[in-house]
Amino acid sequence: MGVQTIEEPIFSFELQHQLHRQPYYQQYAMYISKFVAACSAGLFDAALNMLWNETVVNLREKVKRFDMDYFLDSVITDSKRRAAFRSEDDLAKLEEWELVKGCRDTGIITDIGFKHLDYIRDKRNHASAAHPNHNDLSGLQLVSWLETCIKEVLVKEPKGAVVQINSYFTTLGHRPYPCAGIICRDSKKDVRP
Fold first, then answer.
1. Position 177 in a domain
2. How many beta carbons lie within 10 A of that of residue 124, not counting itself?
């Protein structure tokens, strides 16, 4: 039996605390159970991959519920590349840094959330099991990053302007004419049904 470090009980308590705070994980989080299993085995580099995978899946779902065309038009400025993105399945072709940046640019996540997620993404790319490295991660770092992902993405829904824009696009999508019931300035004629 190994020697228990001072960090282990703190890590265990904090991990349980974060997971029990949110009922989201009990029903929806596919990668969180793998995250917990990896943490329990001390495989913190693998746990970081699982946490990042859960975060990316959640961000993609938020984009799908938002307005994908607006999101993709905001993120992909090259028209030839943009033409390759036609369905929700194509979101998987988007680089993860583009997904996170696009979520910030369209208001799906906050500026501070973006900064935290970009840091976690960088650690995932340079200190996790995703790529060969000799970096050590601690359980407390993982719990801190779990808390960040919970607060900034997993249980947080977009607020403010992004919700208003989504509502506006949804409303336009359900009306046969965007100017129905008013006189359009461009046409100078009444387009009431």
1. no
2. 23
State pLDDT tens for residues 104-124. Answer: 999 999 999 999 999 999 999
Number of domains in the chain: 1
Instruction: Report the alpha-carbon distance of residue 178 to residue 162 in Å, rounded.
Output: 20
Q: Does residue 39 lie in a domain region?
A: yes
Q: Which H helix or E strand runs over 166?
A: helix 161-174
1 within some domain: no
Q: Give residue-wise pLDDT tens across range 162-171.
A: 555 555 655 6
pLDDT at 103 over 90: yes
Tell me how far apart the alpha carbons of residues 160 and 59 are, in angstroms, rounded to a whole number. 17
Cβ proximity of 86 and 10 under 8 Å: no
151 within a domain of the structure (yes/no): yes
Cβ burial 77-92 (10 Å sphere, 16+ → b, else e): eeeeeeeebeeeeebe
30 and 61 Cβ atoms separated by less than 8 Å:
no
Confidence of residue 173 (pLDDT cuts 50, 70, 90): low
Closest CA to 137 of 45, 3, 46, 40: 45
Q: What is the pLDDT of residues 1-39, one digit of tens each?
A: 343 454 555 555 566 656 656 555 555 678 888 888 888
Rounded to the nearest 10 degrees, how much is the dihedral formed by the CA atoms of 3, 31, 74, 175?
A: -150
What does the radius of gyration of the chain's CA atoms come to, in whole angstroms?
21
Where in the sequence is the domain holding 40, given as residue range(s)? 7-159
